[in-house]
Amino acid sequence: MNNNIKNILITGANGQLGREMHLVLNDKPQLNVCYTDVQELDITDAQAVEEFVATNHIDCIVNCAAYTAVDAAEQNQALCRLLNVDAPKLLAQVANRHGARLVHISTDYVFDGMGCRPYREDDPVCPQSVYGSTKADGEAAVQAELPSAVIIRTAWLYSPHGKNFVKTMLNLGRQRDSLRVVVDQVGTPTYAFDLAQAIVAVILADKWMPGIYHFTDEGAISWYDFTKAIHSMAGIVTCDVQPCSTADYPTPARRPHYSVLDKTKIKNTFGLRIPYWEDSLRHCIQRLEENSI
Questions:
Q1: Most buried among 67, 88, 139, 220, by the most CB within 10 A?
Q2: What is the spatial distance between Cα 132 and Cα 130, in angstroms, rounded to a whole number?
Q3: pLDDT at 3 over 90
């Protein structure tokens, strides 16, 4: 096992990714995993984090916690910065002092979305929103405090848990006769279960490979086409979904028009085979139907 990693701390364990990490790590009995959310560990409290890492002999921290309410962030800049910049910086500092590894999750929103090819890890960041700016600053803070950290950027995350686009479109599709969905924003849906599997592969790799990586599922699609696929797979036929432009649907935070991420680096480094978004969406919808989450 990589560098004798045995004791793992998961922050944000009640969120979409945190809950899927629990599912993926269930069959790894060789690992001792501490699942925490704010009730168990306030990651903005330096003393609490220091004591938790020391007491539990943490070898690796996976930071799934973040302020992700993109539009609300425009009016809650201080809280957004506290969770997306200050907290990751603190985790990196504590990890550095204790010789622990750190995997930090970031986002496609660090880019301006004006490109026309998949973004690579070394493309310059140019965030267009408070959320994106804090995530970019969080990346920089982590790398400054802990150069050996792994940062994984992802996008369009969904799961059977919490609030996300898939669950929202399922609910609206069953409640409404019609919907208008943005067609001029293109990216890649990412099933949180797939991202969790990738994170575990990084942790358990034979060699620790620090740096920034991109991970989403394979393929690219607009929000409109994604919605059509969601409804089709769920058997929703009573809702008329029509395309609209970003200009027709103004939001407080600016969204990237094109945020497809190039995943060559993470695939080559860790030998990953990444699922196609449509296959993963089908798996998620099956879980929702089976469990009525």
A1: 88
A2: 5
A3: no
User: How high is the pLDDT of residue 97?
Assistant: 97
pTM listed for this prediction: 0.96
How many domains, in total, are found in the chain?
A: 1
Q: Between the CA atoms of 151, 49, 54 and 1, what dihedral angle is there, to the nearest 10 degrees? A: -20
Active site residue 213: no
Which residue segment(s) compose the domain that 58 sits in?
2-164+188-218+260-276
Residue 58 lies in a domain: yes
Domain with 97 in it: what CATH number? Answer: 3.40.50.720
Q: Closest Cα partner for 66 from 95, 94, 37, 39?
A: 37
Structural domain includes residue 248? no
Q: What is the pLDDT of residues 102-147, one digit of tens each?
A: 999 999 999 999 999 999 999 999 999 999 999 999 999 999 999 9
290 lies in a domain?
no
pLDDT of res. 104: 98
